[in-house]
């Protein structure tokens, strides 16, 4: 029996349900399995047959019932010679009790392990107990909990182990607030115990805090060799057992090595990796991985990716200094992705820690001359102290004091000069302006225009201050959306930085990155990528540079690739690289939020809302850690989180996220360009969920505030609100009123290359409006333009692509182009692949109408019924108006087929929904009333 790794969780879930039934019920339940579960029918039947065989043979048939939901069964009583005192814990294989010998009261207590006694699993668990007993008997070490006894009593296998009255090593260190050096000394005891096991050709395979206890005397004890593996003399794995065949990989995922996750060959390096994870947690109070989501799959992805945050970066501030350098290097070596790159043994691991504690060079770091001299000085500090303390203290003190004083004076002078200059800029007492207007009417832009030229002349003697002021001033121009002045000052800043510092100085790289972002915002993405290539040549980003500038480079590259067809994977790789570097170097950096949020956007674009949600939550957490987070950035991330939750059918969560986004956007105090996008998505959500009055209130409050003429905002964000306003009117059947805002939005969006996804959606909406108003030729051109655009940029099964195609097909059918319409409807169903999206019932209903027109009532009824069923099970971010649209169409079909009762019932259902969604006078409500009247008249 071979079962794929990913099928085990579902197979065991089904098996548990079957085991609770009588044999006759099991057969019926097996036969009733559908969908993906049907693939597991044969494996489940084989497992049930094995159970029947075990019962016939009487194997373990008399075991006591130690079932998970009946823990009291073993809280009292005896097992063999053991008196059960109390339960210590339980896991996937059984329960552990504190027990004493009934026949020897003075004997020390033991930890008595008892398996859950389901007959199907008993053989596997008995085998595991036998393995643990035999392994422990071969291991005689004070750091390993010893086996006291083992046996079977009345069919119940049991294993008596040394009882350790202690707590996990991580809890012990935290409770005692141990310094780093003491934590390392405590960990050396773990390495000694594991090293002993390795010398006996035993690897533990499940090293984690729960299996490493510290007793009351401070002695470490290694527990639970139940999943340990014996190595052959040549180091090869022993043959697989029923345990491994039945259960797959025996491990705890958070502490497993990459080869355990991947199902590869195991060795002592497997334990070295888990020891590295344990040491990381012991030192940094957290695991080494930053998880996108708290699921087993995410843990496995993080481990196999190999992206480890340095302990000194992830640790509490009090421990970071002690971890930098040697300890970082030691832990990272133990956590190497490839087994060959790790320590060759637990002893080698321990030796490097001892060398660090003794201030000797460690193997995990290259031993350069400066590094060796530093270690020598630290190790023999007492020898050098007597000869050098006085002279060193005097010299070092004088140098440090003078340097600090000079630096402080320079920084203070620079800060004062910058403040004085900016105050002078905004005093607004320039006679050139006051001749014409009083100071209160002078704008910030005018003041900057008059004074920006002073920077290089007044600070010609102080280039560093001039560079900083040029950066501040250009940034102000950027916020004022004065692109030409922004570009000019940025160019001067770059030229001055090059002349003063040289080509590779960080200030020069920062200035170059600023120019890249300027290119991106002005839609010159080819030029942005050219500049990024030039920066790469200077600092070696693609070659593996690890710096904040490299992180910014990857973030900018992802943005520069946004409108490049087919670059989705490359863009995601760039974002993941940026995330990894920001997380490793500075998780409080403002751009970390942007990298996480953009990755969420990419997941959302790919139809992966769960992954998008997790990235947005990470981004919001990163933003809140910042001292002065940008309200606009947080608002947009909350808005995007609302989109993801809407697609995940978490409508309450989505509503809360949208409300938070609106609150944050308004709290910014100014109307940022992103404000329109926040209101747009919130109002769109409300309208699609049937809260029409609330949506219209938002539109009524916000539309008058848009730039004039409509859609003329410099960033184009305001066009998004116009588009959704037009979409709402169109959904309510008001095509004539929808047309002007849709046309205005389309003009703005189509002129911006960075809005390629919005362009397709806007084209479809405009096509639908024009089609509803009888402008068929224009509608068809826009439909075809949008569908061709979808084909170039998105998979056929994308929700937006399916929605566009089904609306085009409806128009073809309405204009009598039935063969073309049928082709499009069928293409929608193929691409949708039975997913619960709105395009499916609309396509089925379209095929029903075509079948009726072709004189095939059976096919018409079949498609109509499938449409009804699909409409009842829609999920994700769809407009609730789709359902009454299907009910009206199915009512009309029922009437045409002579089923007046069904027609009347469906029309009444559609009318009730349309009145709630769009009002009494809406076109949808009128159409439903007419159908009800027609069905009622035909009945009479």
UniProtKB/TrEMBL annotation:
ATP binds at residue 113. Pfam families: Pkinase. The chain crosses the membrane at residues 381-403. Residues 82-357 form the Protein kinase domain. Keywords: ATP-binding, Kinase, Membrane, Nucleotide-binding, Serine/threonine-protein kinase, Transferase, Transmembrane, Transmembrane helix. SMART domains: S_TKc (SM00220), TPR (SM00028). The keyword ATP-binding applies. Coiled coil: none annotated. GO terms for molecular function: protein serine/threonine kinase activity. PROSITE patterns: PROTEIN_KINASE_ATP, PROTEIN_KINASE_DOM, PROTEIN_KINASE_ST. It comes from the Bacteria. This is Serine/threonine protein kinase.
């Amino acid at each position: 029996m071979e079962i794929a790794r990913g099928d085990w969780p579902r197979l065991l879930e089904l098996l548990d349900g079957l085991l609770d039934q009588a044999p006759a019920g099991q057969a019926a339940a097996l036969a009733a399995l559908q969908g993906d579960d049907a693939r597991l029918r044969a494996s489940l039947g084989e497992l049930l047959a094995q159970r029947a065989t075990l019962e016939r043979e009487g194997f373990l048939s008399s075991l006591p019932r130690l079932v998970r939901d009946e823990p009291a069964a073993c809280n009292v009583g005896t097992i063999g010679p053991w008196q059960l005192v109390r339960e210590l814990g339980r896991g996937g294989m059984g329960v552990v009790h504190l027990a004493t010998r009934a026949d020897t009261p003075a004997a020390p207590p033991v930890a008595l392990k008892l398996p859950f006694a389901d007959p199907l699993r008993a053989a596997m668990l008995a085998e595991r107990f036998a393995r643990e007993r035999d392994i422990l008997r071969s291991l005689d070490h004070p750091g390993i909990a010893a086996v006291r006894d083992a046996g079977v009593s009345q069919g119940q296998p049991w294993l008596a182990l040394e009882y350790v009255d202690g707590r996990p090593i991580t809890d012990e260190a935290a409770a005692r607030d141990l310094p780093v050096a003491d934590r390392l000394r405590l960990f050396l005891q773990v390495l000694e115990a594991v090293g002993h096991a390795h010398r006996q050709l035993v690897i533990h395979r499940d090293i984690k805090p729960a299996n490493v206890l510290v007793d009351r005397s401070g002695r470490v004890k290694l527990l639970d060799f139940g999943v340990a593996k014996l190595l052959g003399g040549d180091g090869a794995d022993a043959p697989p057992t029923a345990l491994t065949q039945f259960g797959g990989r025996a491990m705890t995922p958070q502490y497993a090595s990459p080869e355990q996750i991947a199902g590869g060959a195991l060795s002592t390096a497997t334990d070295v990796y888990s020891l590295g994870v344990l040491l990381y947690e012991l030192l940094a109070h957290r695991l080494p991985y930053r998880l996108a989501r708290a699921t087993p799959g995410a843990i496995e992805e993080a481990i196999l990716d190999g992206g480890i945050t340095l302990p000194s970066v992830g640790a509490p501030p009090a421990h970071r200094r002690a971890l930098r350098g040697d300890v970082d290097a030691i832990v990272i070596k133990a956590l190497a992705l490839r087994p060959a790159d790790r320590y060759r043994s637990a002893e080698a691991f321990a030796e490097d820690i001892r060398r660090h504690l003794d201030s000797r060079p460690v193997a995990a770091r290259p031993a350069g001359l400066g590094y060796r001299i530093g270690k020598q000085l630290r190790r023999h500090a007492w020898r050098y102290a007597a000869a050098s303390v006085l002279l060193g203290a005097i010299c070092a003190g004088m140098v440090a004091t003078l340097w600090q004083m000079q630096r402080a004076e320079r920084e203070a002078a620079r800060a004062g000069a910058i403040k004085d200059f900016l105050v002078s800029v905004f005093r607004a007492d320039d006679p050139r302006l006051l001749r014409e207007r009083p100071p209160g009417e002078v704008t910030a832009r005018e003041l900057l225009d008059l004074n920006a030229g002073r920077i290089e002349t007044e600070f010609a003697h102080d280039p560093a201050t001039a560079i900083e002021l040029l950066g501040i001033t250009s940034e102000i121009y950027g916020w004022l959306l004065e692109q030409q002045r922004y570009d000019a000052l940025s160019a001067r800043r770059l030229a001055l930085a090059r002349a003063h510092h040289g080509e590779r100085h960080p200030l020069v790289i920062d200035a170059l990155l600023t120019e890249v972002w300027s290119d991106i915002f002005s839609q010159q993405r080819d030029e942005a990528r050219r500049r990024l290539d030039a920066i790469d040549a200077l600092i070696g980003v693609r070659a593996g540079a690890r710096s904040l500038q490299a992180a910014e480079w990857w973030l900018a590259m992802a943005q520069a690739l946004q409108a490049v067809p087919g670059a989705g994977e490359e863009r995601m790789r760039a974002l993941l690289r940026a995330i990894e570097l920001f997380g490793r170097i500075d998780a409080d950096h403002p751009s970390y939020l942007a990298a996480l949020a953009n990755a969420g956007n990419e997941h959302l674009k790919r139809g992966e809302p769960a992954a998008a949600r997790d990235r947005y939550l990470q981004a919001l957490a990163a933003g809140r850690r910042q001292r002065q987070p940008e309200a606009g950035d947080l608002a947009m991330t909350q808005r995007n989180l609302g989109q993801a939750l809407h697609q995940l059918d978490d409508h309450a969560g989505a509503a809360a996220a949208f409300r938070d986004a609106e609150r944050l956007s308004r709290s910014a105090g100014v109307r940022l360009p992103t404000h329109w996008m926040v209101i747009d998505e919130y109002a769109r959500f409300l309208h699609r969920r049937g809260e029409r009055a609330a949506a219209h209130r938002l539109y009524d409050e916000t539309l008058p505030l848009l730039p004039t003429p409509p859609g003329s905002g410099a960033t184009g964000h305001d066009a998004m609100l116009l588009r959704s306003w037009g979409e709402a009117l169109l959904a309510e059947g008001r095509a004539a009123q929808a047309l002007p805002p849709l046309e205005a939005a389309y003009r703005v969006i189509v002129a911006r290359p960075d809005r390629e996804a919005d362009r397709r959606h806007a084209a479809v909406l405009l096509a639908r409006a024009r089609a509803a108003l009888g402008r068929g030729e224009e509608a068809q051109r826009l439909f075809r333009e949008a569908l061709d655009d979808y084909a170039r940029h998105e998979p056929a099964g994308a929700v937006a692509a399916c929605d566009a195609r089904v609306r085009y097909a409806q128009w073809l059918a309405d204009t009598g182009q039935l063969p073309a319409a049928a082709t499009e409807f069928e293409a929608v169903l193929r691409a949708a692949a039975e997913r619960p999206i709105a395009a499916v019932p609309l396509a089925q209903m379209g095929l029903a109408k075509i079948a009726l027109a072709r004189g095939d009532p059976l096919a018409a009824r079949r498609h109509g019924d499938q449409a009804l069923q699909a409409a009842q099970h829609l999920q994700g971010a769809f407009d609730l108006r789709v359902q009454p649209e299907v009910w009206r169409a199915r009512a009309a079909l029922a009437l045409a087929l002579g089923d007046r009762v069904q027609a009347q019932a469906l029309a009444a259902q559609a009318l009730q929904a349309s009145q709630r969604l769009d009002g009494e006078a809406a076109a949808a409500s009128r159409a439903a009333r007419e159908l009800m009247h027609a069905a009622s008249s035909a009945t009479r």
